[in-house]
Amino acid sequence: MFEVLAHRLTIDNSQFTMRIISYNVNGIRSAMNKGFIDWLTMYPADVVCLQETKAWKENIDCKIFHQLGFRDYWYSAQKKGYSGVAVFTKIEPSNVEYGTGHKVSDDEGRVLQLDFDDVRLINAYFPSGTTGETRQAFKYAWLEEFFVYLERLKKIKPKMILCGDYNIAHREIDIHNPKGNVRTSGFLPQERAWMDKFFSNGWVDAFRTLHPEPHRYSWWSRRFPTVRAENKGWRIDYINVTEPLKKDLIDAEILPDVNHSDHCPVFLEINI
């Protein structure tokens, strides 16, 4: 099926529906040991964007994914067992780009980009600042550099989809305890201001466009064992699109019952 779709995409530019999953697996080998492959076999996705793979391609038996009809693309950190992103797709991309040219970010394997005709799909693992001031400063610098990069890219690729773990809860509705986390990395004023700027410059919060309701989260701290069952979480995982694709949104979901990680998958269905 994916070969047929790829042929239609590159030859006659026909519109079709693409189903995208974005998922911080917090270690792909760990997720696979917890049933990730069985779930992927059952869930209908055309493109799967993973963050925090914590593995190099040679560490994984990729035949499992090939048997499910996926092509696989990896961009791993130079440091073993750290960071990294991967994309599994049943639709052949017309182009693949690794990184952004920002060496510090690229050394950590944070951005992988695929083109599907005139649509650029970006899988990004935004830095976390939870380990201290040094990494928080790196996060701020990374956010500003990435924003500039996206603004330049948007001029030549106006149709973009940005999947990933952003490590930021944008608004109070996106976090269980906003008042108690105003000084916590991931909900700091400067981080939220970056999200305001991002959405004010041609990007659309795809999930919120379709789901304005509260108590929808994608990450739960493992420091407190009961918070996931109690749904005391954060929405920090997104699949966002640029304005030209807003009219093509079909469905978006968060899948909290899928439990291979401290995150859960987020889903987008869109006409391409």
Descriptive account of the structure:
This protein is an alpha+beta fold and about 270 residues long. It has eight helices and twelve strands. The strands form two sheets. It has a six-stranded mixed β-sheet. The chain has a six-stranded mixed β-sheet with strand order 5-6-7-8-10-9. Helix 6 packs parallel to helix 7. The radius of gyration is 17 Å and the shape is globular.
Summarize the structure in short.
The protein has 8 helices and 12 strands.
Helical fraction: 25-40%
Multimerization status: single chain
How are the strands of the largest sheet arranged?
Answer: 3-4-2-1-12-11
Q: Got a strand count?
A: 12
- Beta content: 15-25%
Arithmetic mean of pLDDT: 94
Instruction: Identify low-pLDDT runs.
Output: 1-12
Distance between the termini: 16 Å
How large, in whole angstroms, is the Cα Rg? 17 Å
Structural class by sheet pairing and helices: alpha+beta
Largest sheet: 6 strands, mixed
Quick one: overall form? globular
| Helical run tally | 8
Brief descriptors of the model:
single chain, 272 residues, alpha+beta, 6-stranded mixed beta sheet, 8 helices, 12 strands, 27% helix, globular
